[in-house]
């Protein structure tokens, strides 16, 4: 391999390597600063169970997230269940998504557009947010870009192996998140459009706005057969993936009413708020939408694939959410890379001319192999008019390269500006993952208060513990951390002035009211004692953890549990933390 060719391939790899590394660095920066929120606590609870118990859980709740839990289970067996360890798979998946976004952008619009699309995706606050979250959204995004790239390759040259890869990727997409299968609607549009557009004359280059069906084939019937192969190959591939996913679809459908009972019906206002929600910043979201719209207008038919992938899943989910509670903006984060592709096309300027290709999708002109020179006009290198024409062609090529470099530099400047505009939101997503951010629950602070003052024989009681707030999971998680995990600013003097352990060292107050734990129930909740007064007998000190900031925590405990606590205990100390209040109760008399 010549030195020039090696250098060209190395430079070409920067298109995807730079966005990948930027995303990796951004994802790792401050990865453990925001404490796990309730969804991540569910991941921890599920993934740290034995495999058999994990499968039993998915038959009761969270079947759609079960494959992700299984992946994290294997990961935590190797690297533990610290905040960093739980989130690191998402960082790696998001970095891969950024790299693949650049590869897909290079395939559709050219290397400058691919690089800019990947970088823009890397600097979005939402990319950091979901890269630092122990939930499947980063993995879904990786599969969404991968499956679309594999579709482009399969349409370019249909074959059993390429469609098999596509089938596996579609199955992976559904296993990561079933709602992401709405992306297949966009793929269907592209496949059908590639089939229905008439071919152009052989031997002629496609225009810049070539449609998906302009594949360079003649009108002798071969083009029609190729388009039929694409359609049939895609249909068989999707059918194979659906057969793999069918059992999961059936189980998840049976859990829908319980799993999604917290989601409000969709409203038109939700569509207007979606860009800011997906980007995790209103200003950056507006910039992304504006650039994507400009890119769609400039790219013409080239923008069909990323445009459909960015818009159709959103519209399908919104329409479905009008009848069924499904509308959660983070479920649609996988569409963001496709908006970035259009934005990258806008930032890179006019697309390069296309060359004839077998694909049913538009493709930027492929560069000459590294180390070779593009063919010049006839007579290049000879004296006379032909030689002059060759010299003019070289000068024009050099001018085009200079223009591309200048356009890329300007695009990078816009990406940097977008990153700067998103800095406040970057700081916010590293402060709290809860949504809305004003409703943060400081599980870590509550655990630190208990750990600082607990004594042997202490008990703990939670209210409420039958919803999705998971006060018990949050406190339990942080009580297993080392003392140096306690946040700064949390008081460590023991409540009531008595001696305490002073550290978070894995010593738990007894969860005295529990009669059936999560593993026995095969879900995320516990059974509590039907006669709380009897279960509290013999306990002299109780740590009461209630949701919200409460001046009178005992008054916030309903039912028989509250009656038993009020009858037998007195509040000795109240320690409010954001979103939660911890009180020390002591036995009367």
The topology string of helices and strands comes to HHHHHHHHHHHHHHHHHHEHEHEHEHEE
Flag low-confidence runs.
196-220, 354-360, 365-383, 482-505
Distance between the termini: 88 Å
Give the spatial strand order of the biggest sheet. Answer: 1-4-6-5
| Rg computed from alpha carbons, rounded to a whole number of angstroms | 29 Å
Largest sheet: 4 strands, mixed
Q: What fraction, in percent, of the residue positions are helical?
A: 55-70%
Mean pLDDT: 85
Class per helix and strand makeup: mainly alpha
Description:
- By secondary structure, this protein is mostly helical.
- 58% of the residues lie in helices and 6% in strands.
- It has 22 helices and six strands.
- It has helices at 3-28, 38-47, 51-58, 66-79, 83-109, 111-123, 125-131, 137-156, 160-176, 183-196, 222-259, 268-279, 282-299, 304-321, 336-348, 385-421, 423-431, 443-453, 471-479, 518-521, 532-535, 559-568, and strands at residues 459-463, 514-516, 527-528, 541-547, 569-577, 580-587.
- The strands form two sheets. Strands 1-4-6-5 form a four-stranded mixed β-sheet. A two-stranded antiparallel ribbon has the order 2-3.
- α3 runs antiparallel to α4 (66-79), α6 (111-123) runs parallel beside α16 and α8 runs antiparallel to α9 (160-176).
